[in-house]
């Protein structure tokens, strides 16, 4: 047998870790056979009296109840409750519980904490976050969270789901090759943070540590995690060299927003090392930042098996396993998704490596969350939810609407779209993603209620001749191209549904290029050449793909990006193509040209350009060169114009270039200011076209000229607004100068520079800049 290459070894390690994490959940609940732990009838069946246990006394505060429960446990029992699969403690009436459930874009059966069965065969599968993020609609994100949590709670009430869901993924997309882009809300840390805040609030339904939770959400993967397996690099064996400036500005910001503004009840630390320290053993990042600085009201959990990985794969600690788990616990990790804690914490405690009181505090953090969830007492506000609340028409309609809002129109030559039911009665639909169910729901998916593919959706509007064009998305032979070409010759219009799927981009699988796979380009060319009517190219993908040729080709009339649109994606796509819905989505990340990948390795973590190495900047904030489509790009079937009306301090040093004016007070440190929403910006959005439409209005800020390392621009607000044809609507942004005008200095201070700031509404030809002056006193 040939020896394994470094890449194959890395792939084996990463996949094996995932498989192991899933397999040891197989024999754990659900189904659960009780409504809530402290049900007196349940205790009677156990020959116990609920009155004996103060942790069942609802008159006591959550923390007092959790402490009583933990004080009642033996050391051995405590250790068994610090892994994600809690064993039962029969003498106290505690049942088994699996903490690991997922709800990235709908309730999932991944992780084993929630399952489907005869009584609940499926749950609504919403678009993946990269597609929902394209809507730039905070109300939509919260509504999705509310719907997902309703279905989760309903499933819990019939014994088929847990209450702790390890979602959302809020890692910022740094590189277009990353395989997990589909799980994230894109490349801007502010947008990602606002997605997190709204989705979490929708899931948990409350804010405040003493209030009940609908379900528990978890913001992951903390922090600076955005690489899986690329070339010889991987999340398990490599560490990320990250500047403090980039940590504060980009990699930590969404998590800070998730904790402080979203009041999330859990944060998950990631596998990777940051500056040579695995995040799950970094006390500064966990206890220091999440627990103390941000004041998390909840628990910190490891990514599954990451404690084992730092011990046995990364070999971060040369000491015994007991020394390792003691350090991890002291760093602030409350719950181990895996079995390393349960194997070694008891002996670590008995050897004096860790205090038993430190185990107690971790357990209290965990159990306060379960108490807030009603796991012990029930939750009257949600106890009546049942199977009829899963896959409801209301949720399916929301899934369709979310997909519609997330679809982005990238090209529309000569008004080729929308298609007409009168002119385009017979259409050809070709391409490897035209009838593929799996590409719609991506990963971390459950079992959908039902699928509507692109072909299914378009059949509501026209007679469809469907030809696959490629055997699968890899498109490794030309066998199926000619039937697709023949179909296009006779059709009133042709829709080519191409792109990527989980074979090309996913967890554990980063891309090495930005091209469409195999013979897809040839399929598109030949079909477009043969078509007698307009040709619409639809791309299913998370990351950008190289469509430069088709963007300038006269043979391609329109290009539409559909992302991963969820189970009702086919209906949404058809509604957009035939004009029942006017697209208004915008790209949440930059689509780079292929040359970009030749300029820097995926392992380079710096966001700003590195001139001595010839590395360009990353993301729209720091990259100022050629793109296929920029961040925030998206067209409509109508046109909009903007006009702006705006209404209306301690110093730190910045570096300026030699030609710039240097004010006496360079900047104010945000820590020294009394921050409030002190800026109001009102934007008039006028629909200057002939069709009603929604517009995602994005507001950017620019720091004063001449500050080295300042972002080119950065998003400070966005709203989606529906405007009737020929009419106007006002959108008002309430901003804090401390947040909206601040930058992060070289030394990682958050500071507001003195001088002439600029706000920009929109981008490209539609952009409207206007100045805002900041004066500071020494």
UniProtKB/TrEMBL annotation:
The keyword Hydrolase applies. Pfam families: Fn3-like, Glyco_hydro_3, Glyco_hydro_3_C. GO terms for molecular function: alpha-L-arabinofuranosidase activity; xylan 1,4-beta-xylosidase activity. GO terms for biological process: arabinan catabolic process; xylan catabolic process. It comes from the Eukaryota. Keywords: Glycosidase, Hydrolase, Signal. Residues 695-765 form the Fibronectin type III-like domain. InterPro entries: BXL, Fn3-like, GH, Glyco_hydro_3_C, Glyco_hydro_3_C_sf, Glyco_hydro_3_N, Glyco_hydro_3_N_sf, Ig-like_fold. Residues 1-25 form the signal peptide. This is Glycosyl hydrolase family 3 N terminal domain. It comes from Musa troglodytarum.
């Amino acid at each position: 047998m040939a020896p394994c290459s470094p890449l194959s070894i890395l792939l084996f390690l990463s996949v094996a870790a995932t498989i192991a994490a899933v397999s040891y959940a197989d024999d754990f609940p659900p189904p659960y056979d009780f409504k809530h732990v402290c049900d007196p009838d349940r205790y009677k069946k156990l020959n116990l009296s609920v009155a004996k246990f103060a942790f069942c006394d609802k008159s006591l505060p959550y923390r007092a109840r959790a402490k009583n429960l933990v004080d009642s446990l033996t050391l051995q029992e405590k250790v068994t409750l610090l892994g994600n699969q809690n064993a039962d403690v029969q003498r106290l009436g505690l049942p088994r519980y699996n903490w690991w459930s997922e709800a990235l874009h709908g309730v999932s059966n991944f992780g084993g904490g929630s399952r489907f069965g005869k009584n609940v065969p499926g749950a609504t599968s919403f678009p993946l976050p990269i597609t929902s993020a394209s809507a730039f609609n905070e109300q939509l994100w919260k509504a999705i969270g509310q719907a997902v949590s309703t279905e989760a709670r309903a499933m819990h009430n019939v014994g088929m789901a847990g209450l702790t869901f390890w979602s959302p993924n809020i890692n910022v997309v740094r590189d277009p090759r990353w395989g997990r882009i589909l799980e994230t809300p894109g490349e801007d840390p502010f947008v990602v943070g606002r997605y997190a805040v709204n989705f979490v609030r929708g899931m948990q339904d409350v804010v405040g540590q003493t209030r009940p939770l609908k379900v528990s959400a978890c913001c992951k993967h903390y922090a600076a995690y955005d690489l899986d397996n690329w070339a010889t690099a991987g999340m398990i064996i490599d560490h990320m060299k990250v500047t403090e400036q980039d940590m504060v500005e980009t990699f930590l910001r969404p998590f800070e927003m998730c904790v402080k503004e979203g009041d999330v009840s859990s944060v998950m630390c990631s596998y990777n090392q940051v500056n040579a320290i695995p995040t799950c053993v970094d006390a500064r990042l966990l206890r220091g930042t999440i627990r103390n600085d941000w004041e998390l009201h909840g628990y910190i959990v490891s990514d599954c098996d990451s404690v084992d990985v730092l011990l046995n794969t990364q070999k971060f600690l040369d000491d015994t396993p007991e020394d390792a788990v003691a350090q991890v616990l002291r760093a602030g990790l409350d719950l181990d998704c895996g079995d390393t804690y349960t194997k070694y914490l008891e002996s670590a405690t008995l050897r004096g490596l860790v205090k038993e009181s430190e185990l107690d505090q971790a357990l209290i953090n965990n159990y306060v969350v379960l108490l807030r969830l009603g796991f012990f007492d029930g939750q009257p506000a949600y106890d009546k939810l049942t199977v009829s609340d899963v896959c409801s028409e209301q949720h399916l309609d929301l899934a369709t609407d979310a997909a519609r809002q997330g679809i982005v129109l990238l090209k529309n030559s000569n008004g080729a779209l929308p298609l007409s039911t009168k002119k385009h009665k017979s259409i050809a639909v070709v391409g490897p993603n035209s009838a593929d169910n799996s590409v719609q729901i991506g990963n971390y998916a459950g079992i959908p209620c039902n699928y509507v593919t692109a072909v299914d959706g378009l059949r509501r509007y026209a007679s469809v001749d469907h030809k696959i064009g490629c055997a699968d998305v890899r498109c490794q032979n030309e066998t199926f191209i000619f039937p697709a070409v023949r179909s296009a010759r006779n059709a009133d219009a042709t829709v080519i549904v191409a792109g990527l799927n989980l074979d090309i981009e996913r967890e554990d699988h980063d891309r090495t290029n930005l091209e469409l796979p195999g013979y897809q380009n040839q399929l598109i060319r030949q079909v477009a050449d043969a078509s007698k009517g307009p040709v619409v190219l639809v791309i299913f993908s998370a990351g950008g793909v190289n469509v430069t040729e088709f963007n300038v080709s006269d043979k391609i009339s329109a290009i539409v990006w559909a992302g991963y649109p969820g189970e009702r994606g086919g209906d949404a796509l058809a509604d957009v193509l035939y004009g029942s819905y006017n697209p208004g989505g915008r790209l949440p990340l930059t689509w780079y040209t292929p040359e970009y990948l030749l300029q820097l390795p995926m392992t380079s973590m710096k966001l700003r350009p590195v001139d001595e190495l010839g590395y360009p900047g990353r993301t729209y904030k720091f990259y100022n060169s050629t793109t296929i489509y920029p961040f925030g790009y998206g067209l409509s079937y109508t046109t909009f114009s903007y006009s702006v009306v705006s209404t209306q301090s301690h110093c730190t040093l910045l570096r300026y270039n030699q030609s710039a004016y240097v004010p006496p007070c360079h900047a104010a440190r945000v820590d020294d200011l009394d921050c409030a929403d002190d800026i109001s910006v009102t934007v008039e959005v006028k629909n200057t076209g002939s069709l009603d439409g929604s517009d995602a209005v994005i507001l950017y800020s620019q720091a004063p000229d001449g500050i080295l390392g300042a972002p080119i621009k950065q998003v400070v607000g966005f709203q989606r607004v529906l405007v009737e044809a020929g009419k106007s609507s006002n959108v008002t942004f309430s901003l804090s100068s401390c947040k909206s005008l601040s930058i992060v200095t070289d030394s990682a201070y958050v500071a507001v520079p003195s001088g002439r700031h600029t706000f920009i509404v929109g981008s490209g030809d539609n952009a409207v800049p206007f100045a805002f002056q900041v004066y500071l006193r020494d």
